[in-house]
Amino acid sequence: MTDTALPAAIDSHTLLVAAVIVHDQVNEQVLLLQRASGAKFAPLHWDLPVGKAEKGEAITTTAARELLEETGLTVETDDLRIAGIIHGSWGVEAPNGFLTVVFVAKRWTGTPVNAEPHKHQQVSWHSTTSIPTEFVYTTRAALNNYVHNELSVFTDGF
């Protein structure tokens, strides 16, 4: 075995994405973002904190970074647990679509803020029994499965 990475297989590229369900178990709430009216994808729809991995970045690092960038919350990567996986074939310029690893964070530090007001209309807590209907449907499916204690792999467009 060698420590040298193999060259990228460009023809099989899949965009790697991380999403985070921030779950306040005491109040049975989750933290959601509402996309801005000018968003190029799903304007004014609710979503989880979510974003693309940077080159060479571990997916847990992506999740923690995106959560901080979007909400101001800090989470330790060791505190993230997998809540689901989404593999979609639409909406991105990658031959094999996108793969989103959905994590749950039950511990964090900070107070949520709309840290990217140019991307999000608002950031707010929502009851786990009352998730908004205008929601990006792939992440909504992952969130609903998590709330119902189901680990899921959700595919769309294949």
TrEMBL record:
Top-level division of the source organism's lineage: Bacteria
Domain annotation Nudix hydrolase: ranges: 12-149
Keyword annotations: Hydrolase, Magnesium, Metal-binding
A Pfam short name: NUDIX
SUPFAM superfamilies per record: Nudix
Stored InterPro entries: Nudix_hydrolase (IPR020476), NUDIX_hydrolase-like_dom_sf (IPR015797), NUDIX_hydrolase_CS (IPR020084), NUDIX_hydrolase_dom (IPR000086)
Requisite cofactors: Mg(2+)
Family that this chain belongs to: Belongs to the Nudix hydrolase family.
The protein, known as: NUDIX domain-containing protein
Organism of this sequence: Kineosporia corallincola
